[in-house]
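Weekly modeling sync, notes
Attendees: AB, CL, MP (scribe)

Item 1: holo prediction request
CL wants a bound-state model with adenosine-5'-diphosphate before deciding which constructs to order. AB pointed out that an apo prediction alone won't tell us much about the pocket. Agreed to run with the ligand included and paste results into these notes for async review.

Input as submitted:
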Amino acid sequence: MLKNQSNSLSLDNPISDLPMIGSIQANKLKRLNIERIKDLLYHFPTGYSDTRNIISIEELFKEGAGTIRATVKEIRNNYTRSRKVITKAVVTDTTGDITIVWFNQSYITKVIRPGDTFLFQLKLPKNSYARNFYCTSYEKVLQEQAHLGRLTPQYDQTAGVSSKWLRARLKYLRPHIAQLIQDPLNEKIRNEYDLIELSKALTMIHFPETENDIVKARDRLGFDEMLELALRLETRKKSLKNKKAFPILTSDKIVNEIKKQLQFRLTSDQESAVVEILSDMKSETPMNRLLNGDVGSGKTIVSIIATYAAIKSGHSVIVMAPTTILANQHYKSFNEILEPLQINVQLLTSGMMLEPISGPQVIIGTHALLYEKYIPENIGLYIVDEQHRFGVEQREQLKEGEGATSPHYLTMTATPIPRTLTNVIYGDKEVSLIQEMPQNRIDIQTKLLTGKKRTACLNWIHLQILEHPKENQAYIILPLVEESEKSDLKAAIQVYEELSQGTFKDLKVGLLHGRMKDKEKQSVISRFKKQKIDVLVATTVVEVGIDVSSASIMLIEHAEKFGLAQLHQLRGRVGRGDKPSFCFVIPSDGVEQTEQVQNRLQFFSQNSSGFKVAEYDLSQRGPGEVYGTMQSGIPSMKIADITDIKLFKKARLLASHIILGK
Ligand code: ADP
Ligand code: MG
């Protein structure tokens, strides 16, 4: 039966080992991420159509639509004068005859022959005078139907690969499933967790007999997805637990040395985060903690205190940031506080070299750090900022170079992550939460405008800057410059030209976008900081890491192109000083009235808490869309809902039993 002769079909075999799948089909299947036999089995239906109810021709006349079981009396092609083909068949059951028509499918007469008995899914077109039925699906009556007379699965399709075609391939695979699949969960566990056997679940998801089959199959397959995640978390947790870290001992005196340098007092959330981190770091087991806080809530200073404590106990610290801009920003913040305390802080981004220094030191950089050979050995603390921007691969790499002793790990989020997700994605970590904003903050006023108000808004911004030069600076934010942007999107460059020659021609306008070299970017940012630029037209490169407290106005164009979490992150660039700040959001013409866009942006403009915004975004778009599956390390789940805490807890329980061997 199989092409490769040997009878041993295995899950990892290429899909082309199945009959009827040649290289052309195999290539098409790649588009659905189906390359191996396993992938086909795990290409789950997106839904089912129920054609189990077979009706008689008499009933069909009354209903106007339905599935019948009928024998073909005659079938033939008729050609019109314009050489179109109309195929007509007369079919019959015990209650009567009907005529079915097809257009331009002359091959049908080769598939459906007089005397055959078929299932036909039919409907009467509207206003049909002739009372001829149209056929949406047909299948010869067999011992086992694949397409009709059952709960028929519907699949994601691609050109040349239809649901019907996939069903036929799966039908071929069906008798092999039991032997292909070995259930990693034994019967005892299955009973304990109320799960059906895996091969049964995989059979039932593609060939359900009842709705309950679908439920049972999904329960099992969804559990497996969650279990995979839970196992990863438990493995990571255990591997760190088995490592030894340098205990980092601190005292109030050390913390106070930093506090003395600040012009503000820590918020109580910041205080508790510091206490939690310092207490973790005292341990011989590596800390693995997430600092989850709103934009502008002051996570950096918390990490600086942890850094200082590590240095004081004789260990070096690495701070890793996702972008060069952010690495520079951190370098500045860390250096400002640590240099007066005679701590050596170095910046390392791509193309730079580390100066070999002896003794405890702070190294701040981008992922270029991962490839650096001269990293000091006595790393006591590893700080990773905005982790969800790192690819999973890099993260694994980061942990590999550890050796016998492991540093303590502190991860900081870019945007606040809702609790439902921290539980699941950061389940291997302890969490410190900073919810409260520093007291001197005045809420940013966010206003949703229509495109008609754009000119008025720009004029208003112009006025603010003219009236209080040096005190007011503004950002104009645009979506990324894309190479093949044919739409009417105003690319940053275009807007820059429009504004610097128009509304803002008496002001200094700057431009910042992702295509510029790092050096150019740095120079623009530093001119903006020094107030040599009044208005900065920028793409999302400003999203993180720009801390210019005199910038108090932001206008975001084509706002619907951004996710809410991203908008919130952008908005966090203003309101960093102590004067009232404004954020205007304008959606593109043509979409501004759509309900979904309105609702989303309205919610954003009325809520200043990043946690709330993120929660809303998550509920609207799902985690994959919001955080990007690959980037965030959020596993993509086909069946399970990643925010299903109950399911997660169940899977976690089993995972810990498996990993700890209990
Ligand atoms: P984020 O949490 O987004 O990383 P930052 O650490 O960059 O926020 O802090 C934002 C700004 O708030 C910085 O300029 C920082 O100096 C300031 N800041 C931090 N903590 C406080 C505080 N307790 N009171 C006043 N300002 C603070
Ligand atoms: Mg930050």
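Recorded for review: Residues 389-397, 483-489 have pLDDT under 50 and may be disordered.
Action items: CL to compare against the apo run; MP to circulate these notes.
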